[in-house]
Design goal:
Layout lengths: L16 H38 L2 E5 L9 H20 L4 E6 L2 H12 L2 H5 L5 E7 L5 H11 L4 E3 L2 H43 L1 H9 L4 H40 L11 H33 L1
Antiparallel strand pairs: 1-3, 1-4, 2-3
Helix pairs in contact: 1-6, 1-8, 1-9, 2-5, 6-9, 8-9
């Protein structure tokens, strides 16, 4: 029952530090919770994006040679080139699926930027072929095969996008991890300040306890239990703030069409979040104890 107040010879509950320490810890825990949720969502999103990109290749057939033709002749010329490439890809090793994006699909994808289908049909839009690779796929071999069949075709394996996504994700993850470290550091400094304030306020009582035979470890234990209790209840308050706000953001995200990662609902994630107040309380206990022992060696 470490979180319940015990009988103490030091009136620590009447200190001014007892008023601001729980509020500071509550703010830190709320920010820690937001950072952990954001880190989990980011890792899940990056994993989904990378999996979707890595699982497919695209071949683009630009209408370079037929750009000046009429729309009907251009479509016929592209149709012939696409059929040739499809026949070659159908027999290529390491490919499980080859599918051309229909003109209607391309028009639907481009409509938000280029306008209605009537306008798009007049433009020289390239044809896109999607490829799903399997075990034994050789990118260089496929690139050589396409170069022999259709030199104008462009094979894109999305590696540049994967690298960019990975770089951005790593930067954001590093920033969130740094934020978590800074928040823990700020919590430790708050406990140190509160503990030193309590030592100064109760200096006379501490000297009297020493004259009565009290050891430094006993006094340190009094401060440690007090700081742990204040930090724990501050952590519970912070969780009470962070969880409803996170839930509200998630609800608004679902209504906006966001994909909420399944890991958010896992028992392991819930356990991680629930451990935060306990972890902060233990950090506060250790910090307070070491601070008291260090100060007492110099004070007495």
């Amino acid at each position: 029952m470490a979180f319940r107040p015990r009988q103490s010879h030091l009136p620590l509950d009447s200190d001014s530090s007892s008023r601001f320490l729980p509020a500071i810890v509550a703010l830190m825990v709320a920010l820690l919770t937001f950072a952990l949720v954001g880190l989990t969502v980011l890792q899940d999103a990056v994993g989904r994006w990378s999996g979707q990109i890595e699982g497919s290749l695209t071949v683009q057939i630009p209408p370079n040679a037929s750009a000046d033709l009429s729309p009907e002749d251009r479509d016929h010329e592209l149709r012939v080139r696409v059929d040739e490439i499809l026949d070659v890809l159908a027999d290529a090793p390491g490919i499980s699926r080859v599918e051309e994006l229909s003109p209607e699909t391309m028009a639907a994808l481009l409509e938000p930027w280029l306008g209605p289908n009537e306008v798009i049909s007049e433009l020289p839009i390239p044809r896109i072929i999607e490829i799903t690779p399997t075990t034994g796929f050789n990118f260089d071999q496929l690139e050589t095969l396409l170069a022999e069949t259709a030199p104008e075709a462009i094979l894109d394996d999305h590696r540049i996008w994967i690298e960019r996504i990975s770089d951005v994700a790593f930067s954001v993850e590093l920033a969130l991890i740094t934020l978590i470290a800074v928040l823990f550091g700020a919590t430790i400094l708050s406990v140190v300040f509160a503990t030193r304030s309590g030592l100064s306020i109760h200096r006379n009582i501490i000297e009297l306890l020493h004259l009565m035979g009290a050891q430094d470890t006993y006094i340190a234990g009094q401060f440690a239990r007090h700081s742990m209790r204040m930090a724990f209840w501050g952590g519970i308050l912070g969780m009470g703030i962070a969880l409803p706000v996170s839930g509200l953001i998630g609800y608004l995200g679902i209504r906006a069409g966001w994909d909420i990662p399944g890991s958010i609902y896992s028992p392991w994630f819930a356990l991680l979040i629930m451990i935060v107040p306990v972890l902060v309380a233990l950090v506060a206990r250790i910090t307070a104890s070491r601070t008291v022992l260090k100060v007492l060696r110099r004070m007495l």
